[in-house]
Amino acid sequence: MPGRFKPDLRWSDVTPRSMFLNRRQILAGLGAAGLGAGLGQPAAARLQARPSRYSTDEAPNSFEDITSYNNFYEFGLDKSDPAANAHRLTVNPWSVRIDGLVERPGTYDLSDLTRGVALEERIYRFRCVEAWAMVVPWIGFELGALLNRVGVKPGARFVAFETLVRPDEMPGQRRPVLDWPYREGLRLDEAMHPLTILATGLYGEELPKQNGAPIRLVVPWKYGFKSIKSIVRISLTDRMPKTTWNMQNPREYGFYANVNPNVDHPRWSQATERRIGAGLFAGRQKTQMFNGYGEYVAGLYAGQDLRVDF
Ligand SMILES: Nc1nc2c(c(=O)[nH]1)N[C@H]1C(S)=C(S)[C@@H](COP(=O)(O)O)O[C@H]1N2
Ligand SMILES: [Mo]
């Protein structure tokens, strides 16, 4: 990996969560030009120097919601299991193997992968196939930038991802609940799309372990199961890769898994969703096509029948 760039941001630079709203207000008044200059808080300003036009202005869920209601079967099946068990996971050192149809394959230390990469905040809607939803202020960078750095070879058409297998630290892996490792995949154009990020943090902090530390995928227009956590392998391939939930139940979970109010899950409707944290009497909200990101991604699926390619 090219090593001549200086990192924009180190974990030690990241501003405490308590300052999050504060910083956003400061920067909202700053404009794009004078970022960070003379603020007396250069590190904080650097993080906020990169807000994104892709961020929603909907209010993010609380840190508490985002870190206590999780799906991460490596740590158990209940929503509270990841928060209870993921503290056992060691995330340092961490390396990611990048292989297959790439110019510069290798096993890269995470710090090499993020060196010189500008981290951005992306406030995205997040929609689980189980019909609950949140808004999450991720910190991360575009997957496409990483793929460009390692060099995608001409024949590549898909990207496959794998999660760590470490049953000593991941109690859920001691049982064959899923066919470990958890696997996911994207078509190359989906992987290169600027909305697709690798997240290394949220709420301006290092990514909590229950959310997929130290690095996880976020694909905001697809059901949450595509957003694979704690990634240790990224492979460029010429074939559609096997993916965990599709292997588990191909009738219920397709490869594409685009959020779609018109294609129901065989066992429940996808027309509406429940916003976590909205309160008991808030009622359900309408599911948006492509989770509201259609203006950016609908073109990727021109000519495809999304009932067939679900
Ligand atoms: N390795 C791994 N990645 C995973 C999962 C999992 O069980 N294991 N669950 C998926 C599902 S179903 C969802 S909804 C999201 C949940 O992400 P969150 O807990 O950060 O909200 O993670 C996805 N990534
Ligand atoms: Mo999910």
Automatic annotation (TrEMBL):
<dbReference type="InterPro" id="IPR022867">
    <property type="entry name" value="MsrP"/>
</dbReference>
<feature type="binding site">
    <location>
        <position position="163"/>
    </location>
    <ligand>
        <name>Mo-molybdopterin</name>
    </ligand>
</feature>
<dbReference type="GO" id="GO:0046872">
    <property type="term" value="F:metal ion binding"/>
</dbReference>
<keyword id="KW-0560">Oxidoreductase</keyword>
<dbReference type="InterPro" id="IPR006311">
    <property type="entry name" value="TAT_signal"/>
</dbReference>
<feature type="binding site">
    <location>
        <begin position="227"/>
        <end position="229"/>
    </location>
    <ligand>
        <name>Mo-molybdopterin</name>
    </ligand>
</feature>
<feature type="binding site">
    <location>
        <begin position="73"/>
        <end position="74"/>
    </location>
    <ligand>
        <name>Mo-molybdopterin</name>
    </ligand>
</feature>
<dbReference type="GO" id="GO:0016672">
    <property type="term" value="F:oxidoreductase activity, acting on a sulfur group of donors, quinone or similar compound as acceptor"/>
</dbReference>
<feature type="binding site">
    <location>
        <position position="216"/>
    </location>
    <ligand>
        <name>Mo-molybdopterin</name>
    </ligand>
</feature>
<dbReference type="Pfam" id="PF00174">
    <property type="entry name" value="Oxidored_molyb"/>
</dbReference>
<dbReference type="GO" id="GO:0043546">
    <property type="term" value="F:molybdopterin cofactor binding"/>
</dbReference>
<dbReference type="InterPro" id="IPR000572">
    <property type="entry name" value="OxRdtase_Mopterin-bd_dom"/>
</dbReference>
<dbReference type="GO" id="GO:0030091">
    <property type="term" value="P:protein repair"/>
</dbReference>
<feature type="binding site">
    <location>
        <position position="70"/>
    </location>
    <ligand>
        <name>Mo-molybdopterin</name>
    </ligand>
</feature>
<comment type="subunit">
    <text>Heterodimer of a catalytic subunit (MsrP) and a heme-binding subunit (MsrQ).</text>
</comment>
<keyword id="KW-0479">Metal-binding</keyword>
<dbReference type="InterPro" id="IPR036374">
    <property type="entry name" value="OxRdtase_Mopterin-bd_sf"/>
</dbReference>
<feature type="domain" description="Oxidoreductase molybdopterin-binding">
    <location>
        <begin position="90"/>
        <end position="245"/>
    </location>
</feature>
<protein>
    <recommendedName>
        <fullName>Protein-methionine-sulfoxide reductase catalytic subunit MsrP</fullName>
        <ecNumber>1.8.5.-</ecNumber>
    </recommendedName>
</protein>
<keyword id="KW-0732">Signal</keyword>
<feature type="binding site">
    <location>
        <position position="211"/>
    </location>
    <ligand>
        <name>Mo-molybdopterin</name>
    </ligand>
</feature>
<comment type="similarity">
    <text>Belongs to the MsrP family.</text>
</comment>
<keyword id="KW-0500">Molybdenum</keyword>
<feature type="binding site">
    <location>
        <position position="128"/>
    </location>
    <ligand>
        <name>Mo-molybdopterin</name>
    </ligand>
</feature>
<comment type="function">
    <text>Part of the MsrPQ system that repairs oxidized periplasmic proteins containing methionine sulfoxide residues (Met-O), using respiratory chain electrons. Thus protects these proteins from oxidative-stress damage caused by reactive species of oxygen and chlorine generated by the host defense mechanisms. MsrPQ is essential for the maintenance of envelope integrity under bleach stress, rescuing a wide series of structurally unrelated periplasmic proteins from methionine oxidation.</text>
</comment>
